[in-house]
Amino acid sequence: MSKSGTILYLDGVSVSFDGFRAINNLSLVLDKGEMRAIIGPNGAGKTTMMDIVTGKTRPDTGEVFFDGQTDLTRHDEAEIAMMGIGRKFQKPTVFENHSVEDNILLSLKGPRSIFPALFHKHSAEEKRRIDEIFSVIRLGDKRHDLAANLSHGQKQWLEIGMLLAQDPKLLLVDEPVAGMTDAETEETARLLKDIAKTHSVIVVEHDMHFVRELGVKVTCLHEGSVLSEGTLDFVSSDERVVEVYLGR
Ligand SMILES: Nc1ncnc2c1ncn2[C@@H]1O[C@H](COP(=O)(O)OP(=O)(O)OP(=O)(O)O)[C@@H](O)[C@H]1O
Ligand SMILES: [Mg+2]
After folding, report:
1. Could you tell me the pTM of the whole model?
2. Residue-range definition of the domain harbouring residue 75
3. One of this protein's Pfam families, by short name (predicted)?
4. Is residue 43, in this structure, part of any structural domain at all?
C-alpha cells in the first residue's frame, strides 16, 4: 500500500492491555480530504484507534503515518496536536462561564495571552477566521450568550468550532450526536459535511441514521480490526456485520 495521497495511514497496528488485544492487526487508510465514518459494536476498538492516532496510546506493533510522511509513533500527544490532528471527545468541554465567542477566541491557534483575547483586540485576519467558524457551527446568533446557556447539541457544535480554531488538517470526532435531538443530529451531519469540504475527518458514531446522512465510506471495526468497508448499504448488508453489530 502506498502512503502518498493519504492523510492517515495505519498498517498492521496492534495494541494489548494486560494481554487483551484491543487493536488487532488494524489497517486503515484515509485519503487527503476524505471523510470516513467508523462504526462497530461497543469495545470494537474505535476510541482506542483514535488514542493511537493522537499519541495517547502507543501501539505495540504497526505503522501509523500522518500526511503520508510523518511517523506518529515517534511523537507525543502535544506534538501530534500541533501537527494538525484535532480530536473531539464525546463529552463537551466548553468554558461555561465565558461567552460563546470568547470560547472560540480562547481556542484560536497562535501565540496569544488570554488577556487580549478576552478584550477583543484581534486582527482583521482573526476576525475573518472567527466569522468563518461561526458560519460553520451555526451559532452566529448565540455569539454573545454564555456557553452555559447552550443546549447539549449547541455545546457540541461550539466545541467543534473550538477545534476548527486550532486549524487542524484532520479532525477525529467521537460519537458527536449522542444525546442530541433528531433535529440537532441532522444539522450535525450538514455541519460535518461543510467541514469535510476543507478538512479530512473521521467520525465514530453508532447512530445509523446519522451515518446515512453523512453519505461517506464506512468502516466497521470488530475486535480491533476491520470487519467490513464500503458504502453504508454494502456494510450494513454484509452478513458478518449483521451478525456482530446490527443483529444484536
Ligand atoms: N487503557 C485501557 N486499558 C485497558 N483496556 C482498555 C483500555 N482502553 C481500551 N481498553 C479496552 O479495549 C477495548 C476497546 O475499547 P474502545 O473504547 O476502543 O471501544 P469502542 O469501539 O470505542 O467502544 P464504544 O462503542 O463502547 O465506545 C475494550 O474492551 C476496552 O475495555
Ligand atoms: Mg468509544
Report:
1. 0.93
2. 6-246
3. ABC_tran
4. yes
